[in-house]
Design a protein that fits this description.
Elements (H helix, E strand, L loop, with lengths): L1 H29 L8 E6 L7 E7 L3 E8 L2 E3 L7 E7 L2 E8 L17 E6 L2 H13 L15 E6 L12 E3 L1 H8 L6
Antiparallel strand pairs: 1-2, 2-3, 3-4, 3-5, 5-6, 6-7, 7-8, 8-9
Amino acid sequence: MKSFFSLFFGLFLCVSSFAQSSQNYQFYVNRIKQFSKPARILRNDINTQGNGSIEFTNAKNQILRFRLQDNKLQLGSCRIAFEIYYYENNYLRRVESLDSNGNLIGCNLKLNGEAVTEYILEKPTLYLKKKKVIDDAEGNIDMKDDSNEKIIRVEYFDSNNKPIMLLKPVYISSKTYWQNNIRMAWP
């Protein structure tokens, strides 16, 4: 009987510890006004020491992600703490970089110092063909840069959400878009 209570108590501590850590993460989610609530955990790679990354998603097809170190918010390059990914029909449409208070933050390490990147699929059928090749190789394929085929155009916005004017349109490769779509890189 004593071992039953020990097992029950151990299980209770484990469950309450998970619930408490989940609530701690929710504290960070609540900082981000532009991220729709309620949200659920999509991916949790935080270890027992409180180090790693976590992603939340919601009914609006947004994904909020951030990293922790010792259970504290970890700032990335240019003091970027959070990123919100906006999807439409399973395709990435927009990425916002935010500081620890949830404000848009530009980054001089990025190509144009942008805080926001928007993706426009100008040739969706052609992208789907290239995506299939990338998917079949699980991303492990060297492809020639196809940005000159003008398949995916990007637009950049500053920390005030104002467009960054460029001399000519900017196109990215299908592979780069595919990597961004699955959130491979961190700032």
